[in-house]
Amino acid sequence: MKPLYDLAVIGAGPAGVAGALTASFAGLDVVLIDAAPRPGGQYFRHLPQGFNAQAPGALHHGLDGFTRQWETLRARADVLLGHKVWAVERAEGTVTVRCLEGDREERPRTVTARGLLIATGAHDRPLPFPGWDLPGVLTAGGAQALLKGNLVVAGRKVVVAGTGPFLLPVAAGLAEAGADVRGVYEANGRLGLARHPLLAAGKAGEALGYGASLARHRVPYRGRHAVIAAHGEGALTHVTVARLDSAWRPVSTRTVECDTLAYGYGFVPQLELPVQLGCATRADADGSPVVTVDGGLRTSVPGVYAAGESTGVGGAVLAEVEGRIAGRSAAADLGRRVPPLPRLSRRRDRLAAFAKALLEAYPVRPGWQGWLRDDTLVCRCEEVPLSAVREAQDLGAIDARSVKLLARPGMGWCQGRMCGYAVACLAGEDPAAPRRPIAQPIRLGDLAAPTRSPLEG
Amino acid sequence: MPDVVVIGAGVVGAACAYYAARAGLDVVVVDRGPVAGGTTGAGEGNVLVSDKEPGPELDLALLSNGLWRELAELDGFEFEAKGGLVVAETGEVLEALTGLAGKQGVEHTVVPSGGLGDYEPHLAGGFAGGVFYPQDAQVQPMLAAATLIRRGADRFGRGTLMLRTGVTVAGFLRDGDRIGGVTTDHGDILAGAVVNAAGTWGGEVAAMAGVHVPVLPRRGFILVTEPFDEPLIRHKVYTAAYVTNVASDSEGLETSAVVEGTPSGPVLIGASRERVGFDRTVSVPVLERLARQAVELFPALADRRAIRAYCGFRPYCPDHLPVIGEDPRAPGLHHACGHEGAGIGLAPATGHLIAQTLAGHRPDLDLTPFRPDRFEERR
To answer: What is the CA radius of gyration of chain A?
Structure first.
């Protein structure tokens, strides 16, 4: 551990690892920090041990390359896994990263660096619907965790629903692991994938791999369909699947038996750290706030860079490219000799254009709000039903923040990470960049104590 | 044409509107944002009499305290008459504290060191004693403000009290020398009088009318813990240092945490006081100090997690008194702003007094100490 690094990188996913490695090769002293005990981020972390051997090539797409990068990085830079960052500050050209090390017995740690690369990725974007709080209903990311092997997947009757290309690897992964996947229900048209320039982005192989896997397991994949209600006494037993019109209003419904529902409506970039630093944000193609960056992935705050999903949801390949560009920028800004590499920027532009096309092909349509009943919980932490949101609006709440202040959605443990998108939609606005001065829960005793650097232990 | 336009749908504007409607006036409340979206939505909900020096602000607080108890009859928000416990670190401080309590003439009980545990079983040991103020109370400020407007409309008629959110005032209409309404981004609103209840932004509103009212922001951070199953803290608890900080002129950071439980479970710790303009950048040292003081008061809090922090901007005037009353420099314009960290507590009395002046009655309290032009001589 060093008292002052050249660059701190937060996030050990594809963007963070590539960025850290690139910066290290360019001569910077780098430290990489991640909350999880294993590297990989959302994309690689959840692949179970021994899964690679059986899975079709597409499923561990890029894992070998990532593993090689990780091993190289570990030999060249300091790596702090299991470190949750709860605050970042910047003063006089130095960034201070405040972390909590460990799980139950947390210890405060402080890392300081001259530059900061934020590669914190994104989390699932669920929508509320009647029954979404039943045991057995999982986010798509939660289903990936299920695949990790903690729970028996084989024999489970699973429905996969939501929107976006991410549903395919989830369904294929579940089917490969022995689950009985009853159907994949894509709320947008399933032609979205074929229509868009997958070939141009070199993703055809990946998409075909998932398609072949689903076909082999005889999994039906339906467009313009959604799960609009989940049912069961104490646990999930069946779901209501609706055929949708173009605004996602149900046209007809039927019942599908299942004990597990994995669903997701895209991703929410994690922005609390850049917002703490005052980085400028913008609305992405789907309305989500993302960090504004220049061609070198520099944010509006000097010495602070962002790469991966925090600059716009675009997947692992784009994230890695952005990480490399950001690592080069950080090195160049600290006076290292970094030859220009226009090829990399062109690659990023191409991938980003594809990501934008995907966001536009898989939007969230307003009709989902009609699936809700008065008693449907919008916020599960604080148990806020739709009717309470409507009452708050009736009292004069005209935006998501005032709905939150009057009815308490987003006030609980997850701080609106689960319900923030839905509440913003219900309030009739795009979600705002999250203002969370405390990015992770921290014991008051730890907050009160003077924080120690890793050196002091 | 309404009799009154109230600028600002925070708790002070809501109270002005409620009492004006009750007095038989037709009222329109406009706010550029939602109801209670400014400082009201970033406060703790303190209704305190314990922290005021004897004088006009304490008179206002006592009048308000009684009015809050009446307003609590309106269904829609909870008035928690929990009482406040002020603790003293040393015998010397305790002496000063009991001296202040005697001068205030407010209902109170002096609590010896050994008696503190009866009030707060989890309080740290070692305090010299304290003073308990049974009138100190708590409201959820956003719900209280929204409820005043809603119930006012229900009781006195929707034509009588109307809320228009998302309407930004751009200037004033004049009828000769008199203020005769406002211009907004949604058209003009003619009215017999205008109430400036724009809180921290009250100085900007006054400037649109060509008058100087020095209202400045003082930033306050509040820490919120995870919810507790069993209430750990029964009252509002704070150290005597709070009283000196409230009246302080210091530019720098001051913290003296008020710690209390809430009906929904979390413990609130706040607030700090800093003069840094409208800067929302997170200040970790401020959060650390709040946490330290809370743990010093209640050691059991050390193992509980803070899950959230928020900040707001308390509107303060150089003499730490609010501005209440009609502006002789702009007849027809009434100010009700600059309540610093006490806006929730002082709102009903402010609304009541403004309604009295609007209706041409003699106000229950002398408004001279709060007059809007009192800063002229210092300029």
So the answer is: 22
Encoding tokens for residue B221?
């951070």
How are the residues of chain A apportioned to helix, strand and coil, as percentages rounded to the nearest 5?
35, 25, 40
Degrees (nearest 5) of the Cα angle B339, B265, A130? 110
Q: What is the mean pLDDT of residues A179-190?
A: 92
Is the CB of A402 less than 8 angstroms away from the CB of B34? yes
Average pLDDT over residues A253-257: 97
Query: Which residue in the set A87, A395, A441 is minimally distant from B35, CB to CB?
Result: A395
The whole-number average pLDDT for the span B310-339 is 96
Is residue A314 within 8 A of residue A359, CB to CB? The reply is no
Radius of gyration of chain B (CA): 20
**What average pLDDT does range A107-130 have in this prediction?**
96
Are the Cβ atoms of B41 and A443 closer than 8 angstroms? no
What pLDDT, on the 0 to 100 scale, is given for residue A455? 46
Cβ-in-10-Å burial (0-12, 13-18, 19+) of B174 comes to middle
Question: Which carries the bigger pLDDT value, residue A45 or residue B93?
Answer: B93
* Residue-level pLDDT at A55: 45
Q: Is B163 on the interface with A (CB under 8 A)?
A: yes
- Residue A402 has a pLDDT of 95
- Which residue is listed with tokens 């896994």? A81
B305 contacts chain A (CB < 8 A) = yes
A99: left (phi over 0), alpha (psi -120 to 50) or beta: beta
- Beginning with the edge strand found earlier in the chain, give each strand of the sheet holding B46-47 in spatial order: B46-47, B137-139, B79-80
**Dihedrals φ, ψ of A387, to 5°?**
-60, -35
B106 with B58: CB under 8 angstroms? yes
Query: Residues B222, A425, A370, CA angle at the centre, nearest 5°?
Result: 130
Complex ipTM, two decimals?
A: 0.91
pLDDT of residue A451: 53
Check if A411 contacts B (Cβ < 8 Å): yes
Task: State the nearest Cα–Cα gap between B304 and chain A, in angstroms.
Answer: 5
Domain at A5-123+268-339: CATH architecture: 3-Layer(bba) Sandwich (3.50)
B131-176, pLDDT tens digit by residue? Answer: 999 999 999 999 999 999 999 999 998 789 999 999 999 999 998 9
Q: What is the pLDDT of residue B200?
A: 96
Domain boundaries, chain B: 4-71+141-214+319-370, 82-134+216-316
Which residue did the predictor score with more confidence, B227 or B251?
B227
User: Residue B300: which of B267, B263, B271 has the closest Cα?
Assistant: B267
Residues of chain A with CATH 3.50.50.60: 5-123+268-339, 126-265
Look at domain B4-71+141-214+319-370 and name its CATH class.
Answer: alpha beta
d(CA B163, CA B28): 6
Task: Quote the strand ranges of A237-330, DSSP E.
Answer: 238-244, 250-257, 260-264, 267-269, 281-283, 289-291, 304-306
Give the domain B82-134+216-316 fold: D-Amino Acid Oxidase; Chain A, domain 2 (3.30.9)
- Write phi, then psi, for A42 (nearest 5 degrees): -60, -30
Task: Tell me whether residues A405 and B302 touch, CB distance under 8 A.
Answer: no
Architecture of the domain whose range is A126-265: 3-Layer(bba) Sandwich (3.50)
